[in-house]
Every structure is written in structure tokens, then in C-alpha cells.
Amino acid sequence: MSVLFVVWVSRVIGGTALELGWFMTAQAVGGLAGGLFVAQLTRGAPPRRVLGLASIAFGFLDALLFVSPLVRPEIVIGLVIIAIVGVTTVAFGAGFNTILQTSAADAYRGRLLGAIFTTMALLRLSSTVLAGVLGSVVSPIPLLVAFQAGSYVALGFVALGFLPHEAGREADGLVREPA
């Protein structure tokens, strides 16, 4: 969750730690529901499609969440939206991790995962600093829509457009030995 989300809850919603907790809980409940249903809904779908569509849905739902108080300032609407975001988070994670884990040979998988997650941590750190600088000058809504929601939508289109169709699928005839 973006550091600007706290600013959004405070400034846009007018909420406190209590309302922030409600949003985090609603997303977690959506994630639990997603954990129960995503496997059945995506069975047989290529992981790149799951990643791409889940990422696009995640981004558009996030954008809807961030602008919804401008249209209807009712917290219940935001809680429902973020619960649905929780479902897309599970689908995103399943597609992302499947592609990562099946795209590298066993000998390189640890290095690949280490490099990817280190890069993600550095990007999260730099975006936190940027959010701290810009968050005091600019409203959190355009920043969240552009960077938080926009990056997920862009990732989804990149996944659908540029990842090979077989990304995340086991190679034919590959026999995995138990660890």
C-alpha cells in the first residue's frame, strides 16, 4: 500500500487511524475471498493473461477508489472497492509469482527472485521519498491515480503485449523432481 494512501485517507476522506484500519481490513477480507476463488476462476488461463488482466483491473479499481470521494463521499463505497481490489491482488500475485518461478532454471531462480525483489524494494524506497516530497505540495489524488493506479495499468498492458504467450507455463516434457 502506498504511503500516500494514509494521506488520502486523512485529507480526502477526513479519516483517522480507525478509517485507515477499515480500509486495510476490507482489502484483507477481499484478499481472503480472492484466495478462495481465484484458483477456480483462472484455472487453465495462461499466467501472463492472469497477471495482465489482474494488474489492469487492480489499477482501474485503485483509480476508481481514489476519485470516488469526489463523486460520492461515502466511506462504504471505498470499502467495497478496496475489498474488490483485494481479490485482484491475489490474482496479480498468483500470475506474477508463477511467471517468476517458472521463467528461470532452478540454478538461477534464487538469484532472479533476489534481484527482482531487491529492485522492487529500492523502487518502493525511492517512491516513498518522492511521495514525501510531492505529498506536501500536491493533492494525493492525482499522485495516486498517476503513479499507484497508472503503474498497475501500464504493467498489465506490458504483460499482455510483450510477455511471451508461454510465460509462466511449464516446458513440455519437463519433469520436476521433488525438493
Describe the structure.
The protein has 6 helices and no strands. The chain is 79% helix and 0% strand. The longest helix has 30 residues, at 106-135. The mean pLDDT is 88. It has 179 residues and is mainly α. It has one domain (3-162).
What are the main properties of this structure?
single chain; 179 residues; mainly alpha; 6 helices
Q: How would you concisely characterize the structure shown here?
A:
The chain is mainly α. 79% of the residues lie in helices and 0% in strands.
Topology:
Elements: H1 3-13, H2 17-41, H3 47-71, H4 75-102, H5 106-135, H6 140-162
Q: What low-confidence regions span 5 or more consecutive residues with pLDDT below 50?
A: none
* Shape, per Cα inertia axes: globular
Q: For this entry, what is the oligomeric state of its chains? A: single chain
Strand residues, percent: under 5%
The helix content is over 70%
Radius of gyration: 18 Å
- Main sheet overview: none
Order of helices and strands: HHHHHH
Derived structural class? mainly alpha
Count of individual helical segments: 6
**Count of domain modules:** 1
Q: Write down the overall mean pLDDT.
A: 88
**Beginning-to-end CA distance, first to last residue:** 34 Å
Number of strands: 0
